[in-house]
Amino acid sequence: MEEVIAIAIGVLAASGVWLLLRPRTFQVVMGLCLLSYGVNLFIFSMGSLFIGKEPIIKDGVPQDLLHYTDPLPQALVLTAIVISFAMTALFLVVLLASRGLTGTDHVDGREPKE
Amino acid sequence: MSWMPHLIAAPILLPLLTAALMMMLGEKRRPLKARINLFSSLLGLGISILLLQWTQQTAVPGSIGVYLPGNWQVPFGIVLVLDRLSALMLVLTGIIGVCALLFAMARWDGAGSSFHALFQIQLMGLYGAFLTADLFNLFVFFEVLLAASYGLILHGSGRARVSSGLHYISINLLASSLFLIGAALIYGVTGTLNMADLALKIPLVPEADRGLLHAGAAILAVAFLAKAGMWPLNFWLVPAYSAASAPVAAMFAIMTKVGVYTLLRLWTLLFSGQAGASAYFGGDWLIYGGMATIVCAALAILCAQRLERMAGLSILVSAGILLSAVGFAQPSLTAGALFYLVSSTLALSALFLLSELIERSRSAIEVLLDYEGEILPRTQGSLQPPKGFNLDDEQKTVVGQVIPWTMAFLGLSFIACALLIIGMPPLSGFIGKLSLLSALINPAGLGNAADQPISNAAWGLLALLILSGLASLIAFSRLGIQRFWTSEERPSPLLRRLECVPIFALLGLSILLTFKAEPLLRYTQAAAETLNNPQHYVMAVLGTRAVPSPEAKAALLEEQP
């Protein structure tokens, strides 16, 4: 499973960086989105990956990390998701404002000279 | 005093509650909101000063105050920690906040909605970033202050602001991603996010994981260095800061210092001399990266044509000096750097406010410049008075005109700002630079013979400190002559009294620092000593016990009859 997650993070991050380097603002937004997905998965995987283990203490199960998955990265990832979602929404507003003011969707606010 | 530890949380809670109150007041009622904002900012400043005094009084080694907001046992719950360095930064933030707000109240706060609420949230993020002792909490406060700054940088709208704001936001979103990756890597290796706990765990990291830890720390550092403005991560800074409205830019003068502060805090804790194989990891990067920043910014300042741009570049010069000085991990140098930080932040903030007033008179006659529309240097011919201009009966240029008070005020403030930033005597900028220079030449302290010769890096920083001062001197004198001495017909700018008060206050404080340099230098010396001995910090944080619940207290009383 580690390989699948690693490949997924790699693909997300690589596409994110590629899109981030593109000249159109919408591509940049998508790039930042993909990058934050990759980062979120990365944080999640830092708590080591298990199948069928819970982060919440249950009665009758010994309380150590052999029987549970680490709950902290899951809490961190929740915070990170909320923050990156809000920031992307804010970025979209600025993108629209820039489109309206400059009349182009180029990141520099003007079309490159031919 | 028993309520004193609780006061540590007040600088975060107060702006949060004020901002919430303002959201409830709705879109209108600006004068009321401005008054509430001012009252809250002043109260925050007062609390910061109380906290600063408190760090001076306590008998604890390193005088560190710890507060557990959730009353959880230390490495698990979040912690707020107050030491000399964070108290100093709190007071500096408070002062700059009040001054920027006073300036904004004259004119700027009406340029868009929600200025006051955003302003308070910005203050909350800044105060929180200076107080927190937990890596992830630091991320949250960074996002709070960034979110507010995204709103503030667009305050007043306009093409230049939106365009540079777009760059500013995308760079910072990327830096936040890097922050998360770095924090996650460090958590993966050490299993903790508490800074004091990290300081204990890092020497124990197994050799196989050390590379991963260093990679995590380096990625984290890139995020902070982008914030602090190290070359080549600082290309976004000058357009964004020079496009922002004046009070916002004045607030932003402290934002690069947040990056410097977090680097100083984390680096001295995580990679101190006691960190075993990781001791002083990346110090050379700070030294030489800081020097590269000074070189680039000093060269750019020579060709800057607008005052806002020069102020932005001066921020970069001071950031470079601070980063480089911090990288030496030498307490006397850190003490000098902290003094320089206070003095330069006050001066730069004043310069941003001043530049708007000076350029206001220009924009009355010239088309408002686009941010990329750098005008070329004036040719010599334009220095001659144009025909029919300002001549008396004998067709001679009038000499000895009465200078309007506004021009006198602007000119004198400009000179004071320039002296502070260049680091020329007699103002406090000189004392800051002098203490840096003397710490570089006498690593063991004045009068003590050093065991080893002065390193090449120290000579390099010494030369760059002086040369960057020279570059600023040339640039500021040229711009001052252009703005104040050329005979060019322009209306004397209209100033409101409220706009002069904050500049006067900031510069007055800088002048006060010149006379009261010794107490502040002693204070920064003590702060640097605390940073150099992280075990005090670690012991104070990890030694704090959660307050027992009433039941536990009752049980304890029953056990001991």
TrEMBL record, chain A:
Gene3D superfamilies: 1.10.287.3510. Its main location: membrane. GO terms for cellular component: plasma membrane. It is a multi-pass membrane protein. It is found in: Cell membrane. The chain crosses the membrane at residues 6-21, 28-52, 72-97. InterPro entries: CPA3_antiporter_subunitC, NUOK/Mnh_C1-like. Keywords: Cell membrane, Membrane, Transmembrane, Transmembrane helix. PANTHER family: ANTIPORTER SUBUNIT MNHC2-RELATED. Belongs to the CPA3 antiporters (TC 2.A.63) subunit C family. This is Na(+)/H(+) antiporter subunit C1. The gene is mnhC1.
Automatic annotation (TrEMBL), chain B:
The chain crosses the membrane at residues 6-26, 38-56, 76-105, 126-153, 165-190, 211-230, 236-255, 287-304, 311-329, 335-354, 402-424, 457-477, 498-515. Keywords: Cell membrane, Membrane, Transmembrane, Transmembrane helix. It is found in: Cell membrane; Membrane. It holds the Pfam family Proton_antipo_M. One of its GO terms (biological process) is ATP synthesis coupled electron transport. It is a multi-pass membrane protein. Belongs to the CPA3 antiporters (TC 2.A.63) subunit D family. This is Na(+)/H(+) antiporter subunit D. It comes from Pseudomonas fluorescens. The gene is mrpD.
